[in-house]
Amino acid sequence: MRFLMLVCVDETLGMTEADDTVEQWLAETARRGVRVEGHQLRGREDATTVRKEGALITDGPFADTKEWIAGYDVLDVASLEEAVEIASKHPLARFGAIELRPFWED
User: Measured between alpha carbons, how far apart are the two ends of the chain, in Å?
Assistant: First the structure.
């Protein structure tokens, strides 16, 4: 099963550089062979939202929330339970939320 893992952070929770242990998480997922790809995204100040209604294009995230998508990963795992276990170990889960969405399978 493949899952899109959205890493959503909340800057108001006091994330610091010292808290960042993403490299360890990346090494563990590489060792297990479950991370297909992933990348950090630029901040919400660089986001652009496109809506069909009148071809409205706006700067910023689509919703006015304190959490924003900081990055993504694609996981290839045996089950939702395994995806949850991997996502729960992501260090940024302490500063927001990790959302898992399964891909449609043909």
Answer: 12
- This prediction has a pTM of 0.78
Cα–Cα distance, 24 to 91 (Å, whole number): 9
Reduced to 3 states, what is the DSSP secondary structure of residue 77? coil
Between CA 44 and CA 50 the distance in angstroms is 14
Please report the pLDDT score of residue 90 as a whole number: 92
Pairing outcome for strands 96-102 and 35-40: unpaired
Q: State the total domains in the chain.
A: 1
**What is the tens place of the pLDDT at every residue in 92-103?**
888 888 999 999
Tell me, what CATH number does 24's domain have?
3.30.70.1060
Q: Does residue 15 come out as left (phi exceeding 0), alpha (psi in the -120 to 50 range) or beta?
A: beta
